[in-house]
Structures are given as structure tokens and as C-alpha cells.
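The aim of this short unit is practical: by the end, you should be able to scan a pair of folded records and say something sensible about each. We start with the first protein, listed as its amino acid sequence and then its C-alpha cells.
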Amino acid sequence: MNTKKIAIAIDGPAGAGKSSISKVVANELGYLYIDTGAMYRGVTWAVLDSHVDVNNQKEVEALLPSLDLTLEPTASACKVYVKGQDVTDLIRQQQINENVSTIASYKGVREYLVERQQAMAAVGGVILDGRDIGSVVLPNAELKIYLTASVDARAKRRWLEVQGTSNEQPLEDIKKNVESRDEMDKNRDESPLVCVEDAIVVDSSNMTFDETVKHILHLVQERI
């Protein structure tokens, strides 16, 4: 059996299930999963925790050198550390959801994190997911996937995810948040969300989680 390890880039809009699907695929393949979204969330948490104005790009970028942002891969995902503090659970709060697209639109933030992502991916046998992996972070990835789903499907999934947690919200609010993040991600100046020409589009609106995983594993097998 050919055990060539490739780099896989998975892009797509907010709530398409990129992270949870990438984790399972990475596990199945014995690959390293690099949660780039969690890295942007980590920076957002640090900005809010330092009481820096989210809308002040200069101040946000000035904070970056002191963050010491690191990822520690675990069996189920990635732990995120900022200045040695484990912030893995803290970065899932609603306040982070509302501000992460703004932070991610800043050029300095993207450069800071892309450099880290490329260094982590250089070894091969990795899956990265985000908005600009195929276009900016790993333009030479052997397999590029654009994972998407309708706004309604994505909002419903997120709504089900937060039921019974402290982040619970009405479905209508979640739908608005998904739509506004799409708008921001597609229209920002720095590395907007795009479906690159050589990406394979996977629309999971009518697929179950397991069906989507199976389909992506099949695409990987074809590529190796």
C-alpha cells in the first residue's frame, strides 16, 4: 500500500462542519489536524482579555508578538494555549463568535498565523481547515476541498450544537450570525473566503456527518 502522506486543505464558510469533519478524517488517516480557526479564536480571546479595542487594528497587531500562541494536538482535537494558558474552552464563547471575523480581517494577524500554519504543515500528513488554506496558506496542497452547505443547514447544525450549553441561542440569531460572517469573510480585503479553481466542492446540505467524512476519505484515497 502506498503510504504517501499528503497535505489536505479544507476551506468553506462558517458552520460548514470543517473542523469536526477534518478532525475525524485526520484521525482515520493518522494525520495531524491543525485547527486554524481555533488559532484566530485564540488571538480574539487574547484581544478581548487584554481589553484592547477589537476595531483598533494597530493595537490588535501590536499585541501579537507577546501572545506565544501554540497548538497542542490531542487525540480528539487541538488544545490552544495563549501565554501558556489553556484557552481551548474559552475560545468557544459567543463573544468570540461575534468578533473573530473582524480580527481575522487584519493583515498583521493573518501574516502572524499563516507563518505558523505553514511551518506546522511543512512536514506533510496534515489537514488544515479555514477560509484561505487552498488560496494562501497551502497553495500547493495535493488535495483541496471546498466544504459548504446552505445557510439554513449550517445554522441548524450550530443551533443543535449549542443546545443545553451556556452558549445556547435562538435559531434565528444563529442564522443571522452565520449570514453576517459569510458576508464579512467573502468581502474582506485580506485573504477572503474563495473557492479556488482546483478545489473539489463538497456540498453537505443533504449529507449526514458520516456520509461527508466517508466522501472526503474517498477523495483522499483517490489522490494518494
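Turning to the second protein, read its sequence before its C-alpha cells, just as you did above.
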Amino acid sequence: MTEIVKYGALFALATLISRFTGLVRDVLLANKFGAGSEFDAYVIAISFPFLLRRAFAEGAMTSAFVPLYNEKKDKNKFASAVITCLGLTTLTIVLVVEIYPKLVPLILATKAKPEVFTLATFLARISVPFIFFIFLWAVLYSIQNSHNVFFIPALSPVMMNIGIICGTIFSKLFDPPILGPTLGFTVGGALMFLTLVPGTLRLGFKYKPTFQGFSEFLKLFFPALIAMTVSEFNVMIDVNVASFLGPGNVSILQYANRFYQLPFGVFGVAMSTVVLPLMSYDKERYDEHLKNSLQLSLFLTLPSMVGLVVLSKRLMILVYQHGAFTHEDAVKTGFVLLFYSLGLPIYSIVAVLSRACHSKKNMRTPFVATVLSFLVNAIMDFVLGLTIGINGIAVATTLAGFCSMIYLWLKVKPKVDLVHVIKISLASIIMGIFVLTLSFLNASRLYTIVLVFCGMLAYMVLSKVFKLREFEEFFKLLRR
């Protein structure tokens, strides 16, 4: 438990800083562009490289790279082969989109209005080089994670957020103004990669062009890539269905999803990232690491879910309702966030269970779970999205994650302390009731911040009352 708490806390702290700058980024974008056609085009243009970042770079790369890297005697040769082969692949993708930029809106927003489609095509050429930089970043990220270095890699996405923030602030210098944050997105991706270069060199990495050893990596990477790509198809379908529902809905979906990604990135991704290298080289304690990771993930995500459900509308008004972003936009985004939030502990468990399979080089089980999730999401997106509107898309995402979680749980069969999980659930529910009661006392925006801190304090007290081990471990770490 101590190792997971230590590395998880470092990763979570860095991710929290990164996600906070992401929140600042989204607030500025909402203030400047609102939920209109121009921002819709921006979302479509950056979604393609961003999806490849999550599927190609972060997901498949770390899942296949870390277990093999930890086994290799000549680690530099293995990492160099991955950079050489996949570097050529990503450059090819970049060139194809530069030549045929209409591919991006054709894939992601077939029913977008003509002006949105045209602007998204223009912006796609600006955003697509991000793919190459983020691939290089992913390799260095995986190398550092393999050496149990988590803080700086998790902090590096701050550079992308800073790039977009600067582009938004100086957007008046560009024509159209949305070109500013799009350029910032690509420049930020390059800075993310450069941030990890010094740390990787200190670990002894030296790049030498080679293709040797890549075939073994490809055997794990390809099924992981397919699984992650199928998973990201869910996002593509979400955006497509949202484009059917009229202008502004793609933007609202984006704002809600980005806010939901804040706790998921800090807590859910932290556990799954840390547990992969631990399980890869410490196989004798596989069951122990898995149990601790799942319970720690629930300790963090269950109260987060309850808090977001209770305060979703108030949070969206506090964070986004400024400038071009209206009260009506904030209310709509709040409802979408509420339904996304229900899936927070679900997707966190899915992430941990998937990485547990990857640590054993079992790519098939997570792949089947991903296909199941994709099918459920695709069907429910159209059934719910086209009947009850934008909220239905978020509900479909949560239902798809639940089906994936059940499948993985039955296959992996992790051992957890049920009494401990019940204690976490009770502490979260009591905290939620407490915050909900307090929320009726005042309707001001600033009072929302008070409610957040009251919820955190209440959960800490309840964790002490229920004698939750994770709470004690965190305080031990802080004392050290």
C-alpha cells in the first residue's frame, strides 16, 4: 500500500496541477468563444490529434512498452527501435492530414454546418503536427514511468495548457481568433516533449536509429492500439451525435467532459499508471498491488463522484458562466457533467483492471471489454442521444463503462475487502448529504467554493471515524 500511495500521490499532485491549468484554459476559452460555431470547429480540429494522443501515445504505448522495457537488458536499443518505427508512422499520418485536411471533419462531424466544417478543415492543418510531438513525448513518458519517475511526466501536460492559454489571450492577433488557441495547442505539444528530454537523458537513454526488437513490441502494441482506438471511437461517436443536435452541443459536451476529466485524471489515471510498472517487475505481489490499487481508487473517486453529482450545476456556473458563456449554457453543461460523473469510479476501476491485464501481457481481455463498451455506447448514443438530447450521450458513456467493468471484473476476479468498500461508500454518501444540505443555505457562486472545502473536510473526518487505511497512509506520507 505504501508504494502505491507514495507514487500515486506524486502522480496525482502533478496531474492536479496540470488539470488545474487545464481548467483555467477551459474557463478562458469559454469566456472568449462560448459554446458557438467557432469553438465547435476548434473542438473538431483538435479532437483527432487528441484522440490519437490517448489511444496511440498514452494508452497503447505505456501498456505495451513498460512490461517489455522492464524485461530488456539493452533498454536503449529497445526504446530506440520503438522511436524509429513508430516515429515514421506518425509522420506519415501527419502528412496525410496536411494533404487531405477534410478527413478530420468528415470523420468527426459529418453533420456540422458548412461554416463549421470549413473552419475545422483549416484548423486541422494547424493542429495535426501535435501527433508527432506527442508520440515522442509518450516514449519518454513510458521510459521515466518504468524507472518509477512519475511527477515530471505527469506535470508535463501543463505546457500544452500554457500554450492554449497564451493563444487564447492573444487570439485577437489572429484571423480568425480561434487560430490562436489552435497554434498554442500544437506548440504546447512540442514543449511537452522537450520538457521530458533532460530527465530521460539523466536516466542514461541515448537514441540510436535501429529497427531491431520492434517486432516483439508490435505484438503487444498492435492489440493494445486496436483496443484503445476502439475505445476512442466512442468519443468520435459522441461528437458526431452531438453535432446532430444543433450548434453549441459539441461545445457543451466538450466542456462537461473536460471538467469530468479533472478528477478522473488525478485519481483514476494515477492508480492505473502507477500500478502497471509495479505489477510488471514485482509479480509476486500482483494480487496485493491490485487489491490496494482498486481500494485506493475507490477511496478517491467515490467521494469525487458524489461531490460532482451534488454540485454539478453550481460548479459549471462558478467555472464557466462568464463572457460569451451564458447561464443557459452553464445549466446544460451541469446536467451533462452530472451523468458523466456517475461513471467516474466505474472508469477508474476499468483502467486499473486493464493495466493489471497488460502487466501480464494479456491484451485480449481488455480488448474484448473495450469492444463491448464500444457496442453499448454506439447503440445507446443514438437511442438516448437522439431521444433525450445531449444528456443521453453522457448516460450512454456511463452505461458502456459499467458493462466493460463487469466483464473485466469477472475475468480478472480481483480480491477486495468488501467491508472496506462499504465503509468508503458510506463515508461518501454521508458527505454528499451534508454538502447537499449546506447548499440550500446560500446560492452565491463563491459559496460553491466553501461547499467544496466543507465536503473535503467532512470526508476526511469520516475517513478517520471509519478508520480507512488509505487516509492513514496519506498522512504518514505527508509527515515524511
